[in-house]
Amino acid sequence: MSASARRLGEDADRAYAIQVAAGTKSAVVYGGLGLGAVALAHCTWPFFRHQTLAFKSFLVSISAVFGLAIGADNALLSHEAERRRSENAIRRQATLELSRRGMVPTETAIAKWRAEKAQQSSANGDGMG
Fold first, then answer.
1. What letter does residue 48 receive in the DSSP assignment?
2. CA dihedral 122, 12, 88, 111 (to 10 degrees)
3. Which residue of 29, 46, 63, 86 is most buried, as measured by CB atoms within 10 A?
4. What is the DSSP letter of 51?
5. Is the overall model pTM greater than 0.70, yes or no?
């Protein structure tokens, strides 16, 4: 497996973990808000009090699912934006360094530069790469 394929797999796993964590947290918050709203409506509105437990549970679960979807999506969009910013910074650095060497910064040259940097950082023990 190539380094770029391994990096893509790690990025996908990290993005999935971020989505799961944010979605779970958001589902609990929105589910709690839905439960509070249903409890308040049950205590203050006689018409709502006569509704079935299944309907009230449906309202709570819908609010939790809404929170899950919104929270996970927002977290993924934020992660992707941050990932794009860091990737653009690395590509900009590679382009500048390759241009200083008198090389044309093609995709292949950038990939080689990235591999050199990863090899240097692993030799130095930086853990970057």
1. H
2. 50
3. 63
4. S
5. yes
